Amino acid sequence: MNQAATGVSLYDRDFNLWIADTVACLKAGDFDHLDLENLIEEIDSLGRRDRRELKQRLRVLFGHLLKRMYVASPEDFRGWEMTIRNQRKQLQDLLEESPSLKNYLLSEFDHLWRSTLSEVKEDYPTTGFPDACPFPQNVDLLLTQRFWEQ
Q1: Are 135 and 117 in contact (CB under 8 A)?
Q2: Using the 8-state DSSP alphabet, how is residue 148 labeled?
Q3: d(C-alpha 42, C-alpha 128), whole Å
């Protein structure tokens, strides 16, 4: 049944089939039969998804770095360090796939730092966290340096 008969597009009926059909049209150079409106929307959403993932991973990284550096809870250090390593690896992978996201990370750095600091202060109200960001806006250092050892 086609869209005219059902009133529902393939995109709305069966997303996976829509993807297969779109890929087949692109491979065949059949641009006349592409669902451009939904294709543009999906491609745009891929970029938004990557930016959301980058922001979320950076928030988790900031939070765990802050806890590891300032919260006196040695029994939690190993877990925090494991999370730090994992987030760094995921961020490195994301930046390797899409190097242009580095600029986005730097543009969001201050906002994400302040927002994460606020959340961590709320979770640990008796801990003295710095008001100024102790982390460099150098992505390579942020993703490798063991700040708690300095």
Answers
A1: no
A2: G
A3: 44
